[in-house]
């Protein structure tokens, strides 16, 4: 049991090993800004993992790039804009809701509303439908049925 707890603790701490000591900036304020920016950028190799937690080589290159831009004097927004211009908006973990992304932001709720409307229309139409019971038997059919039952 102790081994399981130790293994889980090491797995939980795994992102700590992503940023190597050689990447860490001497200025704590700049390092904090770099970490904040890195948490909002997607690792292009690992998909839904930020570059601060990823051990991929490309994530390391992006972390170094972010730190280089901060040391050069860029603001947080300028660093993010630089990375987005270089790698595309896919690099953002939280993409903006404008342009082509607006279609993606709207598509989910629109489909839900469309499906709800179609379901409501179906239920209402079924409620108004005529009762599907058949008409009674004709006299010939009743006579034939009586003959069959007598046999």
Automatic annotation (TrEMBL):
Transmembrane segments: 102-123
Family: Belongs to the CcmH/CycL/Ccl2/NrfF family.
Tree of life domain: Bacteria
GO biological process, any: cytochrome complex assembly
Signal sequence range: 1-18
Entry-linked Gene3D superfamilies: Cytochrome C biogenesis protein (1.10.8.640)
Molecular-function annotations in GO: metal ion binding
Entry function: Possible subunit of a heme lyase.
CC per GO annotation: plasma membrane
Keywords from the named record: Cytochrome c-type biogenesis, Heme, Iron, Membrane, Metal-binding, Signal, Transmembrane, Transmembrane helix
The keyword Metal-binding appears for this protein: yes
Protein name: Cytochrome c-type biogenesis protein
Domain CcmH/CycL/Ccl2/NrfF N-terminal: 7-149
């Amino acid at each position: 049991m102790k081994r399981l707890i130790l293994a889980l603790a090491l797995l939980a701490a795994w992102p700590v090993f992503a940023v190597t000591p050689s990447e860490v900036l001497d200025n704590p304020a700049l390092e904090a800004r770099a970490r904040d920016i890195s948490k909002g950028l997607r690792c292009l190799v690992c998909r839904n993992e930020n570059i601060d937690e990823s051990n991929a080589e490309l994530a390391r290159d992006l972390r170094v790039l972010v730190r280089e831009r901060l040391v050069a004097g860029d603001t947080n927004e300028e660093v993010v804009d630089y990375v987005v211009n270089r790698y595309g908006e896919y690099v953002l973990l939280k993409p903006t809701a404008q342009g082509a992304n607006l279609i993606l932001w709207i598509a989910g709720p629109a489909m839900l509303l469309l499906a709800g409307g179609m379901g409501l229309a179906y239920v209402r139409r079924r409620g108004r439908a005529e009762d599907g019971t058949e008409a009674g038997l004709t006299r010939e059919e009743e006579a034939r049925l009586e003959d069959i039952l007598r046999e």
